[in-house]
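Standup notes, structure subgroup. Blocker cleared on the adenosine-5'-triphosphate input:
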Amino acid sequence: MAEPPCGSANRCRLTEGVPGYNVGPISSEAPSVSSITLALSKGRIFEETLPLLAAAGIVPADNPETSRKLIIDTNRPDVRLVIVRATDTPTYVQYGAADLGIAGKDVLLEHGGAGLYQPLDLDIAKCRLCVATRKGFDYAAASRPGGRIRVATKYINSAKAHFAAKGVHVDLIKLYGSMELAPLVGLADAIVDLVSSGGTLRANNLEEVEEIMPISSRLIVNQASLKLKRELIQPLLEAFAGAVK
Ligand code: ATP
Ligand code: MG
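Run returned:
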């Protein structure tokens, strides 16, 4: 049966005052004070976090690339991993469903960081947030103070702040992937996206025209967890800090 339309009932106010939608410790699976849950995303963040976990004496029992499990035990009975989408990591930690997480600065800037303590730049998953255009596009003219530009990105907050600081009017178009396509088919003049080698840009006849900021991944900690579980979390923070060169 169809759901009632949003706005017609309280059930759409997801995080306040609605039975069943409250974000408090409603689940019997909620982590106890004697164990900690770390949220990680698959791919480069998981791969580059493995040596940091090893430095803290933590070895995952499964590989999320080959296992379909979303909750992964470790060699330590008091530490488990949850595998989430990269953009969801701050949300799991904010609400305490995970005590800690590892998330890119790009993702943290879009999330806003509410409820999160960010004690450590782990110097992993390094890349940069850039503006890129089709080769030959006159970016200097379009990005003059008072100019106007149409930008496609999944980084709406960061793009808005960047062009506002330059005094450029920006029309933002939210995309969820394959950003490189947008300037090629006339959806946008430019994209704001992450770049590491620049290979994807080159393959699509695009060029980087401005760096917005360098990006790396940070350790994030739920603020309440840090107080309640300091004995478990503090040694982990120290081991991670020691392993970051
Ligand atoms: P998907 O690519 O499936 O849409 P995603 O973009 O959310 O997922 P990843 O591509 O694995 O996830 O990126 C996760 C994090 O890794 C990003 O938030 C960013 O901080 C970092 N990252 C992204 N692209 C690169 C890159 N090319 N080089 C280094 N780090 C990167
Ligand atoms: Mg990606």
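Discussed briefly. DSSP finds nine helices and nine strands in the chain.
Next: hand off to the docking folks.
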